Amino acid sequence: MKTGYAIKIAVLGTGTIAAGTLIYLCFRPTSLTVFDWINAADLTSEVLALRGALSSLGPHIPEVLLSSLPGALWAFAFALTMGALWSGAPLRWSIPFLSTVPLMALGSEAGQGLGLLPGTYDPVDLLFYTIAILIGFSTALAGHDAPHQRPT
pTM (2 decimals)? Predict the structure, then answer.
């Protein structure tokens, strides 16, 4: 993997995770588990200050973006990173690793629907995750120059 390409993937992946985290911290209900972690890290006052500073934006953001976009951004970053790491590898090596992306993202939502995982099942999340995964894989592959061959 070329250095410039790796830096672009790292920046894009980190940026999308940061954006999703910001949405969660600023606009999602404080009853979510992540806020227990914030409290344990003794960051509650900082997060509450951030929420207060951005609170006027919340009513102008569509609810579907506040609820489904953070997970989709995570799925995009995961697909982007895995796609970049396994680009050019023989399929028998890459498929098991690449398949973890949709299995984890879509599987977590299915697990919620079946009551196996905490959270609320939402078919819109499935749609957002699917689109994000496709864009993440496509972005990783489109930005990669010549595929390299790993030993078989």
Answer: 0.85
